[in-house]
Design a protein that fits this description.
By secondary structure, the protein is mainly alpha-helical. Strands 1-2 form a two-stranded antiparallel sheet. The longest helix has 37 residues. The two termini are 18 Å apart.
Length: 321
C-alpha cells in the first residue's frame, strides 16, 4: 500500500502546455542562477586572494600572525581565526539546539493554540533584534553576570582543554564563552522556527497509530515526532551554524583582542574571520593587503559551504524521515 506522504510529495507531470514549459524554464533558470552566482563569488575571491597568498611570508594555514601593513613583508595566517570562529559557533550550537527542540516540542505538542502563538511570536521577534544590540547586551549585561561562573569553571575544570586558561583574562567576559552564549541566543529563532514547522508536519496517522498502541505523550513524541523531524532539525541546526559562523558585529564587540594565538579554550579572545575582516576596513587601500583579508574570507566561504554539504549528507537528502 503506497505511503500517503510519499504520494503527496510525488512530482507532478508536466502537461506540455506553454504555461508549464515557461514556468519550468523559469524555475530552472532560477536554480541555475544560484549555482552561477556561487561559482562567480568563489572565482572572484580566489583571483583576488592568489597574489597576496604568493606574497605571504608565513604559513597561511598554521600561522597565528596577521600583519599585512607592509606589503614587502606580509605575514598572515588563519589558524587563530579558524579556531575562534569554529569554537564559538559550535559552542553556540551546543547551547541552542536542545533549547530550540524543547521550545518547538512545547509549542507544537503541549501548549494550547493561544499560548503557542504568543510563544512563537516572542521567539521570532528575537530574529529582528540588530546584531549590535546583542553585542552590547553581551558585553555590558551578560558578561558581568556570567564571569563568576566562568571563573569557577576555569578554577575547577581547568584541566580540561575547553576550560583551561586562555589567551585573555576571564574577568571582563570578553571571551569565546560569552560570545558563544550570545550567538546561541541569536541563532535560537532560526533553529526554533524551522524545527517547529517540521514537527507540525508529522502525519496525524503516525501519531494516532502510536496512541492506539497505548503510547504515552512522550512515547508518541519519541516514536513519531522526533524521527519524522530528524532531518529538518539537522538542517535547521546547520542554518543556525552558518549564521553563527558569519556573525560579525556582536562578536567584534564582545571578543577581546589578544597578542597571542588561540589555544582551543573557551576563555580565549581574538577574532573570527568575519570580525577580523570588518575590523580592518581601513587597511583595504592596497590590493595586496586587501587580498590577504579576501583570502581569509575565501576560507570562511569554503567552511560555510562544507558545513551545508555535511548537513545535506547527514540528512540523507530527504526533507523528513
Amino acid at each position: 500500500m503506497p505511503d500517503p506522504g510519499q504520494t503527496d510529495r510525488a512530482k507532478p507531470r508536466s502537461t506540455g502546455r506553454r504555461g508549464d514549459v515557461v514556468f519550468r524554464n523559469l524555475t530552472t533558470a532560477s536554480g541555475v542562477s544560484i549555482i552561477v552566482a556561487i561559482a562567480l563569488i568563489a572565482i572572484f575571491l580566489l583571483l583576488q586572494a592568489v597574489p597576496s597568498l604568493l606574497a605571504d611570508h608565513a604559513n597561511f594555514l598554521t600561522s597565528d600572525e596577521f600583519a599585512v601593513g607592509n606589503t614587502n613583508d606580509m605575514r598572515f595566517g588563519i589558524r587563530s581565526l579558524f579556531i575562534v570562529t569554529v569554537l564559538s559557533s559550535l559552542f553556540a550550537l551546543v547551547i541552542a539546539v536542545p533549547i530550540a527542540i524543547g521550545i518547538a516540542l512545547f509549542v507544537t505538542q503541549y501548549a494550547d493554540r493561544r499560548v503557542a502563538k504568543l510563544f512563537s511570536s516572542l521567539i521570532d521577534l528575537l530574529a529582528a533584534v540588530p546584531s549590535i544590540i546583542f553585542g552590547l547586551w553581551g558585553i555590558l549585561v551578560l558578561a558581568p553576570k556570567i564571569t563568576p561562573f566562568a571563573e569557577w569553571l576555569n578554577r575547577n575544570l581547568g584541566w580540561f582543554p575547553l576550560f583551561a586558561t586562555g589567551n585573555v583574562s576571564v574577568s571582563g567576559g570578553g571571551t569565546i564563552f560569552t560570545a558563544g552564549i550570545v550567538l546561541a541566543v541569536m541563532i535560537l529563532p532560526i533553529i526554533t522556527s524551522v524545527t517547529r514547522e517540521v514537527f507540525r508536519q508529522t502525519p496525524k496517522a503516525h501519531i494516532e497509530a502510536a496512541q492506539a498502541l497505548g503510547a504515552t505523550k512522550w512515547e508518541v513524541i519519541r516514536m513519531t515526532v522526533l524521527p519524522f523531524g530528524r532531518s529538518g532539525t539537522i538542517a535547521a541546526s546547520m542554518l543556525g551554524l552558518g549564521r553563527a559562523l558569519g556573525e560579525t558585529v556582536a562578536v567584534l564587540i564582545i571578543l577581546r583582542s589578544s597578542s597571542t594565538g588561540a589555544t582551543l579554550s573557551l576563555f580565549d579572545g581574538g577574532f573570527t574571520f568575519a570580525s577580523k575582516i570588518a575590523s580592518a576596513a581601513s587597511e583595504f587601500s592596497q590590493p595586496l593587503s586587501t587580498g590577504a583579508y579576501i583570502a581569509a574570507g575565501f576560507v570562511l566561504f569554503v567552511l560555510t559551504f562544507v558545513v551545508n554539504a555535511a548537513a545535506r549528507a547527514i540528512a540523507g537528502g530527504k526533507v523528513n524521515g
